[in-house]
Design brief:
The protein is α+β, with helices and mostly antiparallel strands. It has a domain of 53 residues. It has 3 helices and 2 strands; from the N terminus they run ααββα. The protein has a two-stranded antiparallel sheet. The chain starts with 8 loop residues before the first helix and ends in a 17-residue tail after the last helix. The relative contact order is 0.18.
Length: 78
Amino acid sequence: MTPEPFVSAEQAAQFLSIKRRYLLALARTGIAGAYALGTGTIRKIWVFRLSELAAAVAQNADPQNAGSVRSSGSGSPR
């Protein structure tokens, strides 16, 4: 069995139809399927597994898990 290859942030963002910057923000908060490479203090290189990203999105879209959806913290508190 061949292991699933990692893809770049650009490829993963295109797969999810979102902006690269938003995907990287999700990666920093701990979305499944995101892996940081290196020990950079300012910037890290992120790689992604598409199957794990798809599973994380599907889990958050499941109505039974609606209470466990992680908020991005953006928007008005009102």
